[in-house]
């Protein structure tokens, strides 16, 4: 498994082919998810081999957005299946990565521990100080692309529902992010009450 080669390939492809109107699904988001996945996996005691699988899943999880926005996870899996054999990933490894990518589709449905780690990494920002900034990037992206045209109030109501229903899977993400996520939820509710 040539993780470094796969990483260089997909980051360059995302950089070259990504719609410049995207404000949330950017190369920075991919790298943010990669970083969060590494932190969670290492704190959860994942070994190097499985860490490389998780890191690959993180890098490819939104790559399909270069082909389609809605249902991009399936396009991401297709890209992974086309590309990863060239970097000496086995069919079994690619299948595990595909399951991780599919698990990130909302609503998240993670059955394996590696899937849970990637899901928590993908939504790590919900429990961080930069939540509002990151969230507003997605709000603008949806409006610019016409995915879902919402007012800011409608967006924040949607965020109340989303954060209220969301649960982190791993004990590490729960410990690191749950408290701040609940604070962010409280702040949104306060904004809506003004």
Summarize the structure.
This protein has helices spanning 3-17, 27-43, 48-60, 72-83, 91-103, 113-122, 131-145, 152-165, 171-192. It is mainly alpha-helical.
Task: Describe it.
The chain has a single domain, classed as Hypothetical protein af1432 (Orthogonal Bundle). The protein contains 9 helices and no strands. α2 (27-43) crosses α6, α3 (48-60) crosses α6 (113-122) and α4 packs antiparallel against α5 (91-103). The chain has helices spanning 3-17, 27-43, 48-60, 72-83, 91-103, 113-122, 131-145, 152-165, 171-192.
Strand elements, count: 0
Order of helices and strands: HHHHHHHHH
The low-confidence parts are none
Beta-strand content: under 5%
- Provide the structure class: mainly alpha
CATH architecture term: Orthogonal Bundle
**Considering the protein shown, what is the CATH homologous superfamily?**
Hypothetical protein af1432
- Overall morphology: globular
Tell me the domain tally.
1
Distance between the termini: 54 Å
